[in-house]
Amino acid sequence: MSLGPGTPLPLVPVDRSGVRHGSRSYLTCAFRCGNACDHPEPNRSGNPHIADEIARAVGRRSVLRGAAVGGGALVLGVGGSGSLAAAATSPSRNGRGHGHGRGDSLANADFEPVAPNTRDDVVVPRGYESDVVMRWGDPVVAGAPRFDPYRQSVAAAEKQFGFNCDYVGVLPLPGRSAVLVVNHEYTSPTAMFPAGVYEDAERIAIEMANHGMSVVTLEEHRGSWRAERGRRAWRNRRIHDRTEFRLDGPAAGDPRLRTSADRTGRRVLGTFNNCAGGTTPWGTVLSGEENFNQYFGSSGDLDARYADEYARYGISGGTARGWQDVDERFDLTAEPHEPHRFGWVVEVDPYDPSSTPVKHTMLGRFKHEGANVTLSRDGRAVAYMGDDERGDYLYRFVSQERFAGGRGRKARRHNQQLLSKGTLYVARLTGDGTDDDEYDGTGRWIPLCSDRRSFVEGMSVADVLIFTRLAADKVTPTRMDRPEDVEPNPVNGRVYAALTNNSQRGSTFPPDEANPITSSQVRANPAAPLTTASGNRNGYVLELAPRRGDHTDDRFTWELFLVCGDPEAPETHFGGVDKDRVSPISCPDNVAFDSTGNLWVSTDGNALGGNDGVFRVPVDGPDRGRVECFLTVPKGAEACGPLITDRDRNLWVAVQHPGEVDGSSFDSPASTWPHTDDFPRPSVVVNHRR
């Protein structure tokens, strides 16, 4: 489905054979990111690419001698003697590490890995079950009507659980209660609306209200969880397109953030395309605004002052969403500054429904996958972030102030200001260039600006923060293959980055001896033979180790922990473990950790013919790199927001866009999951032992 400027998004099924990127349909590509991969890569800086550094690093290993350049023949040996590889044989910091065993703990449980499949269900190992906690349209705040797809309205959507859930956060409450925080990334009109029922303007307005976030109070019930109702749910709220946000940090109030509706440049309505996120040590939730560019259209010429800036962010005015026809602030001709008010990390206090959410300008503006915070040894907040675009960068923020302990209001107010002052950095990764028989390298965090000073020549602090991509281009960081979730492991102190894929490696980006990984082994379905496809189709997981374990240090080392794909494919690598012991995995997207430090990876766009899923991967010990599939999601769906809670007994997953298969529609669905209706409903599930 190729949607040109001004072409309305369809409600009738679009019959296109095949898939686009792995298991992603044409519909998903259009609705989620506006067909970003069909457009030129916004980063035209010519800065070095991660594939170059990976190639230099792996090329040093003797096992690779004689590997074919450009043929996808990246064959990694087992083990390694470098600092990160050596850590694989040492116990984790708490002395527990990964091990198989019985009981309720998912960290140590023995389970039979779920085999690749195309079932229209959430599939978990024998002895476990999956419970639906919240579905699209379920009531969130008081007065929400019963969901009826034929009687949707803006007023109803503002009180109901939004569409296409993504990030999942679960924060504790007294007793056996918790508060659930969920992103609603994007809308899929073909799946949401029956044909012939809604006028275009009404439909668009309902879609806008289905974006944002939901905060829902939960109670434990018979070993699982369910939504609270009535007076005990007073914390519940729906954050939507008309929710007011406060801009804070050094760029707040800048003239380029001012509009006709907001002369101060400090108040913004709504948050859109919220993808991943993280829970802070002080009990708030961060959420990343990702593919915001697709919501802005134009009624005429664009402001020539921002031609370079618009281009770098993929803003063309040629949207198929039609939002500018419903709300003039999304018309670039009328409001050229409005897009500058999106692409931030937002912070929400789930414990206070009357609080005003914040957009943090100090964390920079780009297509944020999310943000995850750890505390440094000296108590400063360190946030890791990825810019989810082909060829864009990894970022880090280090706060100026230190975390305040205690549970009082004064400490809470102080901690909620930690992301307002500090220093923003971008990453440069380098192969170490020595003949040390290691497939690793070194890296450096390059400062872009503090809250008071710019370190980029010719750019002010506000310039750097509002147009962070352009600032980063000037300091030669490393371009990455779609850096998505970037999270610090609370047990071993290392940082793990999901690099989902780059299907254009070898076409748009030609092969040479520094870029040998230009083809990948894929499958048309789980039973089909492996075939060769161009580009990096299955993705990587990168492991970074801060120097001396200090997250504020500007130096780090890195290692290619997983080269994803089918274990039968020669280019794959799984931390050094025997490939006979691993599950196939393709297109890592989000990561999480259990209390022993195991990595949990969710996928998006499986290029191996099966449904996406969630995988457990030990990062230390003799099983380091042993990928085991714990769960797969229904047909056409993506696995989002993995989270381990309740002493490792619960795995939370957001099942996004079930049934989003080419040719499907509300009236002719490809899925009916969660099988409570005759149409699919994106939902949050919790998985646990029976």
Count of helical stretches: 10
Q: Mind telling me the C-alpha Rg?
A: 23 Å
Question: Helix content range of the residues, please?
Answer: under 10%
Share of β-strand residues: 25-35%
Main β-sheet description: 10 strands, antiparallel
Shape: globular
Any overview of this molecule?
- This protein is mostly beta strands and 690 residues long.
- The chain has one domain.
- Helix content is 9%, strand content 28%.
- The chain has ten helices and 33 strands.
- The strands form seven sheets. Strands 13, 14, 16, 17, 18, 20, 21, 24, 25 and 26 form a ten-stranded antiparallel sheet that branches.
- Strand 2 and strand 3 form a beta hairpin.
- The longest helix is centred in the N-terminal third of the chain and has 10 residues.
- It is globular.
In short:
By secondary structure, this protein is mainly beta. Helices cover 9% and strands 28% of the residues.
Kindly list the characteristics that best describe this protein:
690 residues; 28% strand; 6-stranded mixed sheet
Topology:
Blueprint: H1 26-33, H2 50-58, H3 83-87, E1 128-135, H4 154-157, E2 165-173, E3 177-184, H5 189-192, H6 200-209, E4 212-221, E5 224-227, E6 237-239, E7 244-248, E8 267-269, E9 274-279, E10 285-289, H7 307-312, E11 345-348, E12 358-360, E13 372-375, E14 380-386, E15 390-392, E16 394-402, H8 409-415, E17 422-431, E18 440-450, H9 461-466, H10 468-473, E19 480-481, E20 483-488, E21 495-499, E22 519-522, E23 531-534, E24 540-546, E25 555-563, E26 573-574, E27 588-593, E28 599-603, E29 613-617, E30 628-632, E31 638-645, E32 650-656, E33 683-689
